[in-house]
Amino acid sequence: MHTNDKSKSKSENAAYGKYDKMTYNRCGKSGVLLPALSLGLWHNFGGIDDFENAQDILKTAFDLGIVHFDLANNYGPPYGSAEQNFGKILKSNFSSHRDELFISTKAGYDMWPGPYGNWGSRKYLMASLEQSLKRMHLDYVDIFYHHRPDPETPLEETMLALADIVRQGKALYVGISNYNAQESEAAFKILKALRTPVILHQARYSMFDRWVEDELLDTLDLHAVGCIAFSPLAQGLLTDKYINGIPANSRAVKSRTYLEESQVHQHIDKIKSLNKIAERRQQKLPQMAIAWLLRKPQISSVLVGASSSNQLKENVKSLDNNAFSKDELDEIDAILKSS
Ligand SMILES: NC(=O)c1ccc[n+]([C@@H]2O[C@H](COP(=O)([O-])OP(=O)(O)OC[C@H]3O[C@@H](n4cnc5c(N)ncnc54)[C@H](OP(=O)(O)O)[C@@H]3O)[C@@H](O)[C@H]2O)c1
């Protein structure tokens, strides 16, 4: 029901029509539709970050129809703090909208000290999800991922833990992340035998990292699993922000991030050439980079990060111009393959 009550939050006043502006794509052959753009909380939502800004980004996302929020146990810093902040924001802004949201979390990387706070044991996954639910004040997540393959733990143990998490009602669906094609194939077979709804593979995919095209997408097709592409802007490289130098406060200069200034220097010529094509298409480079990923039918959603709500508003406009001519695609390929 619509309301004109100005005391309600921006989200509660959001026009229902927002859903008409966003595109929703099916994940594999499942019943789940995801927004073409989803929002990740890896950076900018932790205990060291500005809480008001984090809240503003989440409210803006929701109002744009971006209803999938992606977390992990160790997002912060400190570890766990992104889930904690998300839990607070959820409670004060979206409590009546839980069923409109698709929320994920993951476990698989370093989370707490000792032998039970990392990798892929049943012990770790079960305990970690329990902690995540408490931090977010949720009864269940929509999807729980194993965050990376564990070379030591038997895959059957990890997958059975995912299956049991679904049986316990603590996650509705499961996914895997950072598994290569062969590892994915093995995981999907076990999960399918256990009748566990595996609907997504979360994989790094951008113009600057195309490994999924040759290795993973065919496997996902075969198993009718969708792909959600993370770091689609190569952590901000695929924007125009670095073209005239490295701005203060960008990810490349912030401490406790994984983007180094050397990566900017390494890619700058390609960034400039791609930016010219984007200008010709009358769009911004991040909009073109996102549209370019969505050209692949296996991509259910592009999982962006944002340090401000304006970035999100700008990036969602990728949907206004997402068709590419063959000449444009060839030109982009040539730039990406140049040394
Ligand atoms: N499964 C995994 O192992 C894994 C790994 C990594 C990420 N992820 C997921 O993927 C999500 C997204 O990753 P990501 O943050 O690396 O994605 P990204 O979209 O490639 O990079 C986001 C960053 O790019 C910059 N940016 C975005 N839009 C911009 C614009 N219009 N103009 C200028 N700069 C812009 C901002 O950085 P500035 O701070 O410079 O403004 C922003 O924080 C994460 O939050 C997480 O949920 C998963």
Uncertain regions: pLDDT < 50 for 5+ in a row?
1-11
Q: How far from one another are the termini? A: 56 Å
Overall spatial form:
globular
Strand content: 5-15%
Order of helices and strands: HEEEHEHEHEHEHEHHEHHEHH
Assembly form of the protein: single chain
Return the CATH class: Alpha Beta
Q: Could you tell me the radius of gyration in angstroms?
A: 20 Å
Main sheet summary: 8 strands, parallel, barrel
Number of strands: 10
Reported CATH architecture? Alpha-Beta Barrel
List bound small molecules.
NADP nicotinamide-adenine-dinucleotide phosphate
CATH fold annotation: TIM Barrel
List keywords for this structure.
alpha/beta; TIM Barrel; 8-stranded parallel barrel; two-stranded antiparallel sheet; 12 helices; 10 strands; 15% strand; binds NADP nicotinamide-adenine-dinucleotide phosphate
Detailed description of the structure:
By secondary structure, this protein is an alpha/beta fold. It has helices at residues 18-21, 51-63, 81-93, 122-136, 155-167, 181-193, 211-215, 217-223, 261-280, 285-294, 309-315, 326-337, and strands at residues 24-26, 33-35, 37-40, 68-70, 102-107, 141-146, 171-177, 198-204, 226-230, 299-304. Bound molecules: NADP nicotinamide-adenine-dinucleotide phosphate. Residues 40-44, 70, 147, 177-178, 202, 230-236, 239, 241, 250-251, 286, 303-307, 311, 314-315 line the site of NADP nicotinamide-adenine-dinucleotide phosphate (NAP).
